[in-house]
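WARN retry 2 of 3 for item q-0093 after timeout on previous attempt; input resubmitted unchanged.
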Amino acid sequence: MKKRRLIKNPLLTSSYHYELPDELIATHPIHPRDHARLLVYNRADKSITHARFDALELFLPKNCGIIFNDTKVIKARLYGHKESGGAIELLINRPHDAYTINVYIKGRVKVDTRLVFEEQLSVHVIALYEDGSRDVNFYLHDTLIRFEELLPILERVGHIPLPPYLGREDNSEDEREYQSVFAHYEGAVAAPTASLHFTDELFDAVCSHHPYAFVTLHVGSGTFKPVEAEIITDHPMHSEYFDISPSALELLRSDIPLLSIGTTSTRTVEYHARTEETHGEANLFLHPNNPPLRVNHLLTNFHLPQSTLLMLVASFIGLEETHRIYQEAIKEHYRFFSYGDAMLIL
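OK item q-0093 returned
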C-alpha cells in the first residue's frame, strides 16, 4: 500500500522547518564569486537543473527585465564599553531620522546610559523597546551628529555585520565579498545575498542582453528575525527603507516579465505593486497566501528554516515544492545561507 503524504499547512510556521547539516552552512565566500552553484527550477514542468552561476544567462528568458538592489552594506557593528565600565557590542539596525538611530545592544543598558567607542564616538541611549532594540543618538567629541556624518566614522571603526549563523568574526575578505559589485547607496546592515554572486563581467554580460534597473532597499537586521508566531500571518513584519529609481519605475510599469535579483528587490517591487509608492518604508510579507503580483522570476539564495525569506520563496512555488527543492539541494550538498549557492525560479 502506498504511504499517504502529509500535506503541510502553509499558514503554520512549523511547516517551514527543515533539518540542515551544519557542514552545509557556507561560512566563507567562494572564489571567484560566480563559481557558486545554481539550482534552476522551472515551474512549467517542475524540473530541477543543476548548473554553475556563471551560466546564468543560458537560463534567463529572452524577454525579461531585471531588477537589482543597489544598497551598500555599512560597517554596522561596533565594540565599546559603557561609561561606567563593562564591554558592549552594538549593531545598527536603521535610522528613524537624521539623529535617532535604532540599534541592538549586547549588554544591559538603561535609558540615559552612555556608551563609548573609538575616535571619541559615543552613544546616548534614549529609548528601550520590547523587541530588544534601542533608540540612540550618536555623538562625536560630545557633539550630536547626523546619520550621514556617522557613516565615514563607521568605515574606520566599525565591523562588517556578518549574520550570527556564520559563527565567526569579520575579516578583510568580508569587506570585499559581503558587498555586491553594484552596491552604491549606503544603509544596509545585511547584504542582498543573491547579488553577491555577480562579478563585474557577469553583471555586464547579463545587462547587455536584458533591460535592467536598480531599486534601493536598505536591508535591516529584522531580515534575520525568526518567525515565532504559530501562525505566520501573526508575525510582525519588519519595515525597511526603499527607493525606486525613475528607470526602475518605467520597467515596473511596463508589460515586460520581471526577474528580481533577491528577496529584497522582490519585496520592493511587490510593495510598489500594491501601494504605488516609490519611496518610504516597506513592510510587505510575501507567503503562499500573499503571492507576488508583478515579479515573474526570482533569483535567490537558500534561506533559514522558519524565516520570512523561505516563506517568500514558497509564495512563488508553494510549500510542497519548496520542501522538495530544499531536500534536493541538501542531497546534492549545496551551500546554504548568505555566502551559499543560488536558486533561480523560472
